Fold:
Amino acid sequence: MNWYELYWQRITPLHLFLWPISQLLILFQSVRRFLYRRAILTSIHLPVPIIIIDSITTDSPVKTSLIIQIANILKAAGLRPGIISRGYPDNHRPPTRVTISSHPHLTGEKSLLLTYHLRETCPVWIGYDRIETAKALLNAHKECNVLICDDGLQDLRLQRDFEAVIVDTSVINSGNGLIMPAGPLRDSFARLKHTDAVILAGHQRRIPDITDEIRTIHTRPQKEHFFNLSWPELTADAAGLAGKRIHAIVCDPDTQNFLDNLEFLKLTITPRVFPENHHFIATDFQSDEAEIILIPEEDAVKCLSLHDDRIWVLQQEYRADPGLREIILKKLREKFMDPKLLDILVCPLCKGPLIYKKDRLELICKADRLAYPIRDGIPVMLEDEARKLPDEEEIK
Ligand code: ZN
Structure:
């Protein structure tokens, strides 16, 4: 835990000085928002719809899970999402693609975790400037037709089509409830009036400042389970691992949380604590007599290159209510009504242009002789769902 995070958990005499700074910050943000709304400051419009997912607190354990869920919703609807992120807070590097073999110190653990879970089906790019990163991604992956932006609540330069803000009451309740730098909140609750959806996480099922007009979606933690790092399709619950010689690997400062979780799951383990930002190498585990090595998700991505089949990961997944799918797809349907947006879509196979057939609601690739359907207002850019054009069908 950083020194300032300790301050966010209490009220001290220092807060007499920090509180006025927080108020100034809120005023500054309100003025900026007003200037962007009145188009006095210029914002950038990107050619594909942008979905912003951010948290009102500095961090929320729910966010990565939620981004994976949204990417899967989009993919299942036939869209081709990409994800942009800062990667880690002080990343000043130009746009870079994150791959499964990227070094976690250069990409940040969370973006590597997104890449690991979404594999090759959804590119993840990181960089200092969100707009440049989005442009670089779209340039490299012409098939991407919607972008999810991890963070960006306050980056109003980037025009957004849908914005969801996570309000994690477990983080707010464990802090002092003040706005940065005095507390863990990044903005006032009044900011939520200007967002499309509030994603409520934590035990409290309602927060007083959110009125009924704002769409509120609840998230729920899923039952904890483990998956094998080398073979993610191999999963087990605690009972499936019980009785084996288990070592639990954890890096400071997350130690207690992880060990408490394993104790709660009634697993007998030998804990091994490594320093924060430890770079794992094969010899760290070579002398282990462990049959199973358990590790939290964020540390697991640092062990991908070890290819050790004994490593199992504790996955804590959060799932948003189905209402989230409805409101995101509704918004995207409205966007894809615009023929200009259909014009920029390319064939995911050959990356060539498509011909829009309004009467049949199809997008045709001449080169591959495939017709991609527009189903329920959403272009379904999946080869398996496309109609193979018979030889006699003429394409005009
Ligand atoms: Zn094609």
